[in-house]
Amino acid sequence: MGKGWEQHPSQSLRAGADWSIADFDPDSTPRFDGSRKDAEKLMARQGEHLSLLQEKLFAHGRTGGKHSVLLVLQGMDTAGKGGIVRHVLGMVDPQGVALRSFGAPTAEEKSHHYLWRIRNALPPAGRIGVFDRSHYEDVLVVRVNGLVAGEPWEERYAEINEFEAEVAAAGTVIVKCALLISPEEQYQRLRERLERPDKHWKFNPSDIDERKHWHAYQEAYEAAIRATSTETAPWHVIPADNKWFARLAVTELLLKALESLELGWPLADFNVDEELARLDELGEGAPPAA
């Protein structure tokens, strides 16, 4: 018999104000005592449940409901964000998913507050929104590369916490996942992208430039996670060297978020018996020509 979780990842991977990157092992599989094969079997089963709950959420939004889910995926290059989108969100109906990727801001975006483009990308009711990178770029990439004057990080952490509390109060469940890999694993993944012609499209020379700042990024991640892991929107720090583990962990976190909404199927706004009678009156064949 396959094995599984000793503790749900919503607990085992949750980071608090004292979270330390020095104590974090990117190659670990915290509180999961199964193999990769066990994980893949469990993910397939959970995927069926995930799909059902996502359909309920979509139906909820189509009938006037206010709830949505926002999955924030943050991680360095090759951390596996794209794989999460394909393998986890790929298990649900794509019409119920709103995906946004955040790269360098455009000229228009730079003319506004850094949260402006984030507000404009929040998922509508009934959708699972996915941010591939997010507002946290403005306390990670911006910080490491010195793209703003001064040290506005504490102010930005407070702004982000206030913003996320506002989003949650409006009906959105926020699931924040930091996908962290080891420098050795990133090296292998970057090398694979360079050695395989079918992976060249994924490679950007700037990936190597950013790798030079590895230690600065570790410090920035630790500071951001400590300051912005709140009761409303906690961080879950996911060891991402093992892609199968990271994908299963995100599946479980997303599933728990949907379960927390406790959504049923929307009630019909018409008389079901009357509509059945009208349908049966026409019968199974094509109706007579007008």
Describe the biggest sheet?
A: 5 strands, parallel
Estimate percent helicity: 40-55%
What is the name of the CATH superfamily?
P-loop containing nucleotide triphosphate hydrolases
Total count of helical runs of at least 4 residues:
12
Kindly provide the radius of gyration, computed on alpha-carbon positions and rounded to a whole number of angstroms: 22 Å
Query: CATH top level?
Result: Alpha Beta
Helix/strand order = HHEHEHHEHHEHHHEHH
In short:
By secondary structure, this protein is of the alpha/beta class.
Tell me what the structure shows:
- By secondary structure, this protein is an alpha/beta fold.
- It has a single domain (9-282), classed as P-loop containing nucleotide triphosphate hydrolases (Rossmann fold, 3-Layer(aba) Sandwich), CATH 3.40.50.
- The protein has helices at 9-12, 36-62, 81-87, 107-110, 116-119, 141-144, 153-169, 183-195, 206-211, 214-228, 243-260, 272-282, and strands at residues 68-75, 97-101, 128-132, 172-180, 235-239.
- It has a 5-stranded parallel β-sheet with strand order 2-3-1-4-5, with helices on both faces.
- α2 packs parallel to α11 (243-260).
- The protein is globular.
- The model has no long low-confidence stretch (mean pLDDT 96).
Please supply descriptive tags for the structure shown above.
5-stranded parallel β-sheet, 290 residues, Rossmann fold, alpha/beta, single chain
Topology:
Blueprint: H1 9-12, H2 36-62, E1 68-75, H3 81-87, E2 97-101, H4 107-110, H5 116-119, E3 128-132, H6 141-144, H7 153-169, E4 172-180, H8 183-195, H9 206-211, H10 214-228, E5 235-239, H11 243-260, H12 272-282
Helix pairs in contact: 2-11
